[in-house]
Amino acid sequence: MAFEYLYLLCFILFEFLLSSTIAQTSRNVSLNSSLTAQNNVNSSWTSPSGEFAFGLKQIVKDGFLLAIWFDKIPEETIVWSANGKRLVPQGSKVELTSDGQFVLNDARGDQIWSANSSGTGVSYAAMLDTGNFVLANRNSTYLWESFDQPTDTILPTQTLNQNGILFARYTKTNYSTGRFMFTLQSDGSLSLYTTNFPQDSRRTKYWPTGNTTNGFQVILNQTGHIYLTSKNGTILYTIISPNSNVSNENFYQRATLDYDGVLRHYVYSKSSLGMWSASPNVVPSNICAAITDKIGGGACGFNSLCSVNNEGTSCTCPSGYSSIDTNDVLKGCKQDFVPQSCDAGEASSDSFEFKDLENINMPYLDYEHVPGVPKDWCMQSCLEDCFCVVAIVNNILDCYKKGLPFSTGIIDPNIIGTKALLKIRKDNSTLTDGSPNSKKNGSVNSKKKDDSTLIIVGSVLLSSLGILNFILPLITYVVVSRIYSRKAEVVQHYQVIRGVNLRYFTYEELKQATDGFKEELGRGASATVFKGILASDKEKFVAVKSLVAKVRESDLEFNAEVSSIGRTNHRNLVQLLGFCNEGQHRILVYEFMSNGSLASFLFGESRPNWYQRRQIALGTARGLLYLHEECSNQIIHCDIKPQNILLDDSFTAKISDFGLAKLLRLDETRTTTGIRGTKGYVAPEWFKNLPITPKVDVYSFGILLLEIICCRKKFDEEVEDEDQMILADWAYDCYKQKKLHLLLENNDESMEDIKKMEKYVMIAMWCIQEEPSLRPTMKNTIQMLEGTVEVSIPSNPSYSFTSSFL
Fold it and tell me: Which region is the signal sequence (predicted)?
């Protein structure tokens, strides 16, 4: 019994000491407290020791970041931030309101960020000595804490739990979300990923090479070790070990996923003012070699060179190239010289030379591989190929050719026997808008004509017999004409559409890739699509779209697709890989979409779940927003329908079929054209001969959204009730009569989320308004789908949908 009392006494004493420690290591921030952004002043609340500060930190002129930083060192290193994507100006305010809301408002009073603490009983806030900023109730229970919302850094005693993510910042000085992420997933696996930048979704894992499972927490302990534990606390994996143990008493510490994609452990001595020192043990050990993503520019961006040294990752541009953006070295490099012309006449051997880059490799993005050839052959082949900008050669006589852009070159002394041959212009002439070869081509053509004339004249003079005077010049003329005709045909085969950087395929290449155009994926009025495998990359399936003869005669659809898709790059658009324009063959080569079209997915036997359908709708909307507002040339698709929405491995929606696309110049807002599109998805203005704007795509998206919601086609003549044949009419009737459940028969999952489904129906009704000005833009549509903008009650679309099916 005495032992039990002693145990109870010790327990009470421990609790008292613990509560005393908490009270001593925080300074409470009361309700109605605020901080205001002021130029040249960091408004902040500090921790009791003064080591950490929370507040509005000035990053650029009149640009403030709500952040937590080390406050006792000159660098004032930021370890957490709230509004990296949207800095606020002078006069902005962060406030803990009387009802416990913790919000950041800009100078106009618009809310920029919130801790989502409203209604939880918040009584005070505090900046703790651990670097954790907390919101607590009267019982000192933490209701919100920055440790649970990390950005790119974790601190000692902080844990990264399952579903926790660190996002690298964009650059050293830009705190918006960057290109890399470190995450402990819900299944316990721990990984580093590249992202689908500028989106936050993960793309390709580049560490670890194996699988780690059953992970529960990532911990940075007070001795500088970073490790992964299981649920029972067992250490499963040590991520980073410092060369020597450190302690919080003598060092500041942090683990940061840096903007270059490397996870590093940093220490800073408290006893002397110096600088942050990174442990030599980093993850991954060589970021240049770790990222072997077949899509994207590698660790340093396209057309760049990557190396690792004692100071970290070095991204540089090769000779003849310069950085696209000096403030963002990961964006890659651009050519500074006039590229080789694909027109006949430029003497490549006189104009170009090679720079040898030793101990270097550039994996992936090859467009041609020729085995068993010497270096000289590879150089000459690249020299004569206007598409070739780099040739990779090695000791086993491989020749790889690369066009623009090429992937990051990995520089490593351990890469022996492999070198890159960089083709650059000898005279270093810089890029110009005019054609650099017009005069040269003219002189060459004149020389050819002169040579032809000399041949004919010479034949006449050398012929002494009357019959030869007639026959020999005729034969010579025919032979010379045939030679030049063949050369002209070869040049025509390899013509490139201006402003589009795509791989060119020969007809024979695509015939071989498709096994003689054997496996048909789909067929339409203007083209047939076949499945193929590229010879240069046997793992890569492609979709080969062969245009029918009618289109080949005019080239209209071919040129529209190549010019519009070739300049686009977005997660929700199908990527055009290359094309063939050879004789009568007009062929487009796209990335292969393993899950086919939305039509087969949506109207098949097994319905997609409600979450998948919402993501598909949102992805399609984002793709259209890119076409309408984010392209260099605004594009109106003109034929949005389920058959033109394709799905990749993860069921990401991608818009395809730009053959009917209408491009607008930057100074245009609308256009006029003949009726395009598919019955049932066509906006009323097509029939009224009115100017066409991006709102026609909004209309088509509205019809598509209804099909996604209901998993049924826009028009179904087999239904028993005639009122239900036209989906748009029936959906509006159900909405007005508050009978939306009728749209969801045999769709229990959507029934459980009837409120959100109702909102989606309302959005669709706004999209299909007869008057184009009443329809939202795709940006507004996305905001409504995401829930950031309220959806008002739609009026009756009032358009006679029956006419659109006739």
Answer: 1-23
Q: Which of 373, 363, 264 is nearest to 308 (CA)?
A: 264
Q: Quickly count: other Cβ atoms within 10 Å of residue 395's Cβ.
A: 10
**Of 147, 180, 202, at which residue does a domain stop?**
147
Residues 127 and 211 in one domain: no
527 shares its domain with 424? no
We report the CATH number of the domain holding residue 238 as 2.90.10.10
| Residue 152 is among the residues annotated as catalytic for this protein | no
Instruction: List pLDDT tens digits, range 234-252.
Output: 898 899 988 777 887 889 9
**Assigned domain for 15 exists:** no
* pTM for this predicted structure: 0.54
Q: Does residue 710 share a domain with residue 563?
A: no
Residue 686: what pLDDT? Answer: 73
The Cα–Cα gap between 759 and 790 comes to 9
CA pair distance 154, 132, nearest whole angstrom: 10
Nearest to 166 by CA among 288, 79, 284: 79
Q: Identify the active-site residue in 129, 639, 657, 697.
A: 639
Average pLDDT over residues 784-791: 89
Closest CA to 237 of 198, 188, 201, 202: 188
* pLDDT value for 601: 85
Same domain, 231 and 130: no
Range of the domain at 349: 294-435
User: For position 693, what pLDDT does the model report?
Assistant: 87
Q: Which residue has the higher pLDDT, 194 or 585?
A: 194
Q: Are residues 646 and 584 part of one domain?
A: no
- Annotated ligand binding at 738? The verdict is no
Q: Based on DSSP, count helices (H) and strands (E) in the chain, helices before strands.
A: 17, 45
Give the pLDDT of residue 253: 94
Tell me: do 390 and 351 sit in the same domain.
yes
State the total domains in the chain.
6
